[in-house]
Amino acid sequence: MFSLPKLATAPFCPSEVTGSVTVEPGLPLHKKLMRFAGPGLLVSVGYMDPGNWATDIEAGSKFGYGLLFVVLLASLAAMLLQTLCVRLGLIAQKDLARACREHYSPAVNGFLWIGAEIAIVACDLAEVLGSALALHLLFGVSVPVGIAITAFDTLLILGLQGAGFRRVEAIVLGLVATIAGCFVVELAMSQPNWFGVAMGFVPSFERLQQPGALYLAIGIVGATVMPHNLYLHSSIVQTRRVQPTDAARREAVRFATLDTLVCLSLALLVNAAIMILAASAFNSSGHKEVTDIADAYRLIEPVVGSAMAASLFAVALLASGQSSTFTGTIAGQIVMEGFLDLKIPCWQRRLITRGLALVPAFAGVWWFGDAGIGKMLVLSQVVLSFQLPFAMWPLIRFTSSPALMGAFANRPLIKILAWGLFGVISVANVWLIGTVVF
Fold first, then answer.
1. Domains along the sequence of the chain with CATH
2. 161, 211, 345, 428 — which has fewest CB within 10 A?
3. Other CB atoms closer than 10 Å to residue 209's CB: what's the count?
4. Phi, psi of 410 (to 5 degrees)
5. pLDDT per residue over 27-73, tens digit each?
């Protein structure tokens, strides 16, 4: 067994966690696997945050199992991009934000930094709304009061000062296990049509032509392939200290990639489970206009026939919002340090991010009422999708550069897949703008 290394200061600042988990040469295979496990888990929580819930629930209630293939393809795209982040962090020993600062002009860096910050705030907005709604459903507090309560999660961050990066990973693991466990029970209760589920995973361009399907599909992509996760993963993977040899780095990339694929596969199952639950509980029973998480909570008990289903739903939602809080804090630090070379205490960074998210959260609830939460959640994920190409472009370019990556530069097939994905997401975003404007 290995001991959990402790840090003298906050576990979230990238400059303080680099190389905090040592991987000694000659370790047995199972111990190496354990040493590399963790970064993928922190990244995966961003793929099952409340924003995913909103898009998956609305898609499942409106289109049944029909958009499951979008969840699958988006998850495969996420796996490709996150493995590129692994390679950039372990081989070039740079996170994406720092690499941008070193290779691009100040004007370009400023533009990319603002985009990254917008993505982080949009993600945090989803966490605020999701957590506030969960508190409302579980304890009966009003949504504005729930939003105010989320402002105090900074105290949780402060309480973890010096806890160590591995302990943070363990806490997130507990929250993710809670989410997964709740949905396993709820799927058993809802009794989905598994043949319909299987057919839903088969890609179909015709389904995207249905009214509203493309908007939701882009929201699913934005909720799944989050731009701030590209900055996050390329940094936290550097918490694993390996020998500076090609053989050791190749092995590190292999183990870290395995960690990524396993954890994102879990996120894929959770996202698919949310849509399957919505399809089996709502669409199949005639409730095809469930666009709000609160409506889903109120309907799930009479439709499924169990009060426990509603409680599990709310508990999983709260765990989802809180687990994403950790990654949002870390990503904010990485982006600020990387682009601006600016270091501030992590709790201050948390206050800035949460403060910027609270303003639109309060304004949206005041203007639209509680019924507008679902719309704001979906919109936040569409915003993420629009920011994604601006993080993908430098990531693909850097990992394809022999000058930066040496023998570990992207192979031709990876380049084709990555640039093809960049093109598809960019075209889909432009198409959505065209449908909204014209």
1. 18-437 (1.20.1740.10)
2. 211
3. 9
4. -60, 140
5. 666 677 777 777 888 888 777 777 677 778 888 888 888 889 988 98
